[in-house]
Amino acid sequence: MTTTTPTPVTIVGAGLGGLTLARVLHLHGIPATVHEAEPSSSARTQGGLLDIHEHDGQLALAAAGLTDEFRAIVLEGRQAMRLLDTDGTVLLDRPDDGTGGRPEVQRGELRRILLDSLPAGTVRWGRKVSDTRALGEGRFEVAFADGDTVTTGLLVGADGAWSRVRPLLSPVEPEYVGTSFVETYLFEADTRHPAAAKAVGGGFMMAPAPGLEIFAHREGGDTLHAYVALSRPQEWFAAIDFTEGDAALARIAREFAGWAPELTALITESDTEPVLRSHHALPTGHRWDRVPGVTLLGDAAHLTAPNGEGANLAMLDGAELGQALAAHPDDVEAALTEYEQAMFTRSAQVPTFEGADLHKIDSENNTAPWLLRAFLELEQDGRG
């Protein structure tokens, strides 16, 4: 009897997609090593809430055998949604009745359960990739900032927007989409920031206007996590010194003159320094010709502006790639071809607003597409 030895997999990036891939590979007995630039799992905060969808993110977690662990970290009540006018008028107020298919979890907690599910040593921390190059015959070299290198016959780029693996497959680089977020936090909100807390409610709140939006989540521990979106060129943001937190917040708040104070409090009363998040995207339908021994997943493959799908798609990419490799243990190229064709189709079909029915929102208000998408998803969920 001939036993096929699985090809070890080298994964660059310990985000949700890369860790899901590593977990599914582990379940199928396929060795994998994840190289991550961060020095440790606790080196930085991991962002805010994620709504994990039944049709992609939850399927990925099921494939990873982590459904129970996922359910244990769900924040109850956070699927509630409010839509406010800029004067504070509540236009829509839907509670979380427990029937929605997008439960909310903290990104950091989701990453933790994935990390905890892997054998010790699977993730190698402090491994910042400086370069990758093809060696021929399906072999690749990954070089790290500390001077070390590894050679692999199966390389997966799960390293996000500015992937160091992508150039092996595609010359395309992300481009700025015209909108950036300024991120703020308000702690102990019910007692220290009651007006803002009341405006946000128990889950998700959004307040749109042409070229401007404020939206916020109520996270765990009585924390409000706000994202202030502005459609401005990068040069406009570059003129603001974000190291001077109070001055930067005041400058951002001036763009929202005339808005209700309970909304602008999400800017001016921030308990943390503001963080600028510029949004970039790859072309819709980005794909590449098959190159033996290497592929991409998540934002490295199909980066978009925020639309509620990124983390979910990355996890599904990782799960499906792992399952394809397990299904074709003696034919890596068949596995990668199967995975890429499904991934290309899926990422190109993420809904857009071209031709969408926006009957409940004034078509003249120029609201950002990702925000309208969120609203329509709530309608499709029976909550909008």
From TrEMBL:
Its main location: cytoplasm. Keywords: Cytoplasm, FAD, Flavoprotein, Monooxygenase, NADP, Nucleotide-binding, Oxidoreductase. It is found in: Cytoplasm. Its EC number is 1.14.13.-. Belongs to the aromatic-ring hydroxylase family. TetX subfamily. HAMAP family: TetX_monooxygenase (MF_00845). Consists of an N-terminal FAD-binding domain with a Rossman fold and a C-terminal substrate-binding domain. This is Flavin-dependent monooxygenase. The lineage of its organism: Bacteria, Bacillati, Actinomycetota, Actinomycetes, Kitasatosporales.
